[in-house]
Structure formats: structure tokens, C-alpha cells
Design a protein that fits this description.
alpha+beta; 3-stranded mixed sheet; two-stranded antiparallel sheet; 7 helices; 7 strands; globular
Length: 191
């Protein structure tokens, strides 16, 4: 209940609209919304749970991001019903206990390229639901991804390039494409 107390009325209304558009009230539908979850998981029946939480906040934007991952993830990977993290394999876990920090070490930029595709869908969904996100604000989230500086000669240059790439991805990963991918995957994965 603690998590629900941090859900603002406006965010709750947006999530209700998203639920009405993309989460039919059908016990066989393979995807559910979770207000308490960060990221993605499976429930005991094997349904995908998409989280609205990131850190201490519950926001529609977090749900849109997980929906975008679902639409972007390969069908064969989804059929395996990954328990968490969309079934991705991570690099070595690095923990720094003195500052309560841990992260996974990746090499290359494949994880960023996937996020750029996901951000393409995410941006189009954000525009549909008027959640106020832009390619620039989404690019700023890439600061938390290892190796994002490989895109430019500085943080500012990298963010500018990534912002442009997100706009390009949004032109490819359109709302119509999202909906085609969403509905084909949910039909295929019905319980």
C-alpha cells in the first residue's frame, strides 16, 4: 500500500487510460499492470507483469517504457516467459557497498541500441498520452547506461547524438507499429 500512496491522481488517470486502451479485462490476456513492480516479472500463472515503479515513484512513463520493451522484444524470447529483466543476460555485477551502489558491466553499445528502439516506441506512446516526455528527456536517461559516452566526444555531444537517434527511432517505431507488435504478441502469448 505504501507504493500506492505515492501515485498522484493525474498519473493514476493516465494509467487508467493506458489500461483501457491496451489491457483488456480478459483472464487469458497475458500481460498485467503492476503498481508495485519496477521493470518486468511473471505472475504465478505465467502472465507478464509490467511495472509502473522506478525508484520511489509510480508513473505512467515507467509503464509505457515496459510496454515498449514488450513490443520490441523478440517473440521467441517472450515465448520463453523470462522471469525478469526481459531475459537479457547481463555482464559482471559490480558492487560498491560503501556507497550502496551496484550495476552490471556491459561491453559495447548493444544495450543502448536496444534502448534507442524502445525509446522510439516510448516517445510515441508518451506523445499519445501527453506525459510530457521528449527525445531530449529520454536521452538524458541514457546517462545511466554504461558506455553512452561512446556516441560522442563529450557527455553533451553524446546526449545530442542520442536525442537525434531517439527521434529517428520514433519515426521507425511508430505508434501504429507498436500497436501491431503489442496485439500480435499478446494474441500469441495468451494464457
Amino acid at each position: 500500500m505504501d507504493g500506492l500512496m505515492r501515485l498522484s491522481v493525474s498519473e493514476g488517470l493516465i494509467i487508467e487510460r493506458i489500461a483501457a486502451d491496451y489491457f483488456p479485462d480478459d483472464h487469458r490476456f497475458p500481460v498485467r499492470i503492476s503498481y508495485k513492480l519496477e521493470g518486468q516479472a511473471l505472475d504465478k500463472e505465467g502472465r507478464f507483469l509490467l511495472g509502473c515503479k522506478a525508484g520511489p515513484t509510480i508513473e505512467a512513463s515507467n509503464l509505457l517504457h515496459e510496454m515498449a520493451h514488450f513490443a520490441e522484444r523478440e517473440v521467441e524470447a517472450l515465448k520463453k516467459r523470462p522471469v525478469g529483466s526481459w531475459g537479457f543476460k547481463f555482464g559482471k555485477l559490480v558492487e560498491i557497498p560503501a556507497v550502496s551502489y551496484s550495476r552490471f558491466e556491459f561491453s559495447g553499445v548493444q544495450h543502448i541500441e536496444r534502448e534507442l528502439r524502445v525509446f522510439g516506441y516510448h516517445l510515441n506512446l508518451a506523445r499519445k498520452y501527453e506525459v510530457g516526455e521528449t527525445a531530449k528527456s529520454l536521452a538524458g536517461l541514457c546517462r545511466f547506461l554504461q558506455n553512452f559516452l561512446l556516441y560522442g566526444s563529450s557527455e553533451e555531444a553524446s546526449l545530442t547524438i542520442i536525442e537525434k537517434r531517439i527521434e529517428e527511432a520514433a519515426a521507425i517505431y511508430t505508434l501504429e507499429k507498436f500497436e501491431d507488435e503489442w496485439w500480435s504478441r499478446t494474441k500469441l502469448l495468451r494464457i
